[in-house]
Specification:
Number of helices: 9
Structural class: alpha+beta
Number of strands: 23
CATH architecture of the largest domain: Orthogonal Bundle
Radius of gyration: 48 Å
Low-confidence stretches: none
CATH topology of the largest domain: Helix Hairpins
Strand content: 25-35%
Oligomer: single chain
Number of domains: 5
Distance between the termini: 53 Å
């Protein structure tokens, strides 16, 4: 019996000891056990740093070996000033076009005239015999409009014609200026030879004959050695001969310059005649164009007056419950079509090419695709010019926002290539995404070939900020931008880490980091990633904390 009681007491003591050990283990290792159940987070310390904005892209090089000379409208070619193999400079005139409007512009003007006619007929037909005073006023407005139309149509002279006449006038002025200068120079040169006349030559000839006669007489009468007087005579004869030869050369030069002067004066006379004709033509077209513009303003004003009268009549008819003879929907559509066609004409006039097609770049003419008398076509090359020393081109698309960070002339870094330079030459619309994208076009120079693949980067100067965080740490909701900071609290069993939402203001950003301001310190930690969705106050464990 006693042995049985002793065994029970030993079992109770062992159970109590085991329970105590388990409790101690659970107490001391509770932190580790709990950590395994908490979300794991990855953090980065807030620090001062710089924001570097970059625009990057890749593309394949294309040799800028040639470019096509094009005209965007249909025009007749009057003269072709180049041929295959010619060397041209930037700005050289390649083709001269006939001074007339393009077929596209003519067609657009014809359509505009047709719509105007339809519109005016619609205005004229929109009358009623039942409204005598109104109809009388409208008829007077129509007559006034017709007079203005006649004046305008009798003074048709386009801006292109005026510009061409002005260019021709300036060319004639330059020709007169050059010829006048040439004549002045010839007259000055002839002044230097003015003494070489026939009379002067004849006088020198007589002097030479006289000296020869004196020497002959002296030789005949003297039997002794030549005297000093004889030597003097011979020296004077030699001088006279030299003067005679020099005067003959001057006379020949004088004669040649006289012929040149006569030709130049004849050319100046013709140039002055051409100048007068060009001035007269320019004055005539300028006056006619000004008259056309004034008349066109009168047409607009009087047409507006007629519109107002017609509108007032229509309103009166509506008030009197009389149905309008013109369908208002068709009338409004006609007005809209007229306005749209006017825009088409203005765009074509703005894009019209003057009478000269010039080289945009220096180079060698490789192909001439048109001859005098031919007709240009939109998007069809008139000639192909092989450029000299133009290098290579590379392009790639960027967003509209990125395109605002760069400017033409910026130098890009060519990744992995120290001997290749890249300069931004053009920023143009992306035809595949015109509203949201732009195309950056670079000129590359160095050791490269067509078809090479390069990656380029343009950087703005770095900007220093007191606090930057990784982009992965930045969040946004209805309350604005914020980061999830990591706060810690010490306990008897170790540190506890909690999530704290901190609102921030975004100052600047690049591809990796964002500069912020707010309730953060330079040594705080922000969460960049986590194994679970986090909220303000969530307890977490750090990546290296077990």
């Amino acid at each position: 019996m006693n042995e049985e009681k002793t065994l029970k007491r030993k079992w109770v003591k062992k159970a109590a000891a085991f329970f105590l050990v388990v409790m101690l283990v659970l107490t001391f290792f509770s932190n580790t056990i709990m950590n395994y159940s908490l979300p794991q987070v990855f953090v980065k310390q807030v620090e001062a740093g710089s924001i570097i904005k970059q625009v990057k892209g890749s593309g394949i090089t294309e040799a800028l070996s040639n470019y096509e000379v094009m005209v965007n409208q249909t025009r007749a070619v009057e003269r072709v000033l180049i041929q295959t193999g010619d060397t041209v400079n930037e700005g050289d005139i390649l083709f001269q076009l006939e001074q007339q409007e393009s077929q596209e512009l003519k067609g657009a003007l014809d359509t505009l005239d047709d719509l105007n006619l339809q519109y005016q007929k619609a205005l004229i037909s929109n009358t009623s015999k039942e409204y005598r005073q109104e109809n009388r006023d409208i008829e007077k407005a129509k007559e006034s409009l017709g007079e203005a139309l006649d004046i305008r149509d009798n003074n048709i002279a386009t801006k292109l014609q005026v510009d061409s006449a002005e260019a021709a006038l300036e060319q004639r002025k330059e020709e007169v200026k050059e010829l006048t200068k040439k004549i002045s120079e010839l007259e000055m040169e002839m002044g230097e030879y003015s003494g070489a006349s026939d009379e002067a030559l004849e006088s020198l000839g007589y002097q030479i004959e006289d000296k020869v006669h004196q020497i002959n007489n002296a030789d005949t009468n003297s039997e002794e050695e030549p005297s000093a007087d004889m030597s003097q005579l011979r020296r004077e004869l030699r001088r006279l001969n030299d003067d005679y030869a020099a005067m003959q050369r001057k006379k020949k030069a004088y004669t040649r310059k006289s012929k040149e002067l006569k030709r130049a004066r004849d050319e100046l006379s013709k140039a002055n005649d051409s100048l007068e004709e060009a001035q007269s033509e320019y004055d005539r077209l300028s006056e006619k164009h000004q008259d056309w513009r004034s008349a066109n303003e009168q047409v607009t004003q009087r047409q507006n007056t007629l519109d107002d009268l017609m509108f007032a009549l229509e309103e009166k008819k509506k008030q009197d419950n009389i149905t309008s003879s013109l369908d208002s929907l068709d009338f409004e559509k006609l007005k809209k079509d007229l306005a749209e066609q006017q825009i088409v004409v203005e765009e074509l006039q703005a894009d019209a090419v003057n009478g000269e097609v010039k080289a945009q770049l220096a180079g060698t003419v490789k192909v001439v695709n048109i001859s005098a008398g031919g007709t240009t076509a939109p998007n069809s090359a008139l000639a192909v010019i092989e450029t000299t020393g133009q290098g290579y081109m590379l392009s790639f698309p960027v967003t509209k926002e990125q395109s605002k960070l760069v400017a033409v002339g910026d130098t890009a870094k060519v990744e992995g290539e120290e001997d290749v330079s890249a300069t931004l030459k053009q920023i143009k619309n992306d035809p595949s995404n015109p509203g949201e994208s732009k195309i950056l076009v670079f000129l590359l120079e160095g050791e490269l070939e067509s078809g090479d693949l390069f990656s380029l980067a343009l950087e703005e100067p770095p900007i220093q900020y007191d606090m930057i965080v990784p982009n992965s740490a930045l969040h946004f909701d209805n309350n604005g931008h914020f980061v999830l900071a990591l706060t810690s609290k010490r306990t008897p069993f170790g540190s506890r880490y909690m999530v704290k939402r901190v609102s921030v203001k975004v100052l600047d950003t690049d591809e990796q980091n964002t500069a912020v301001s707010g309730a953060l310190m330079a040594w705080d930690y922000v969460i960049t990633n986590s194994t679970e969705l986090l909220e303000d106050g969530t307890q977490v464990r750090m990546k290296d904390s077990e």
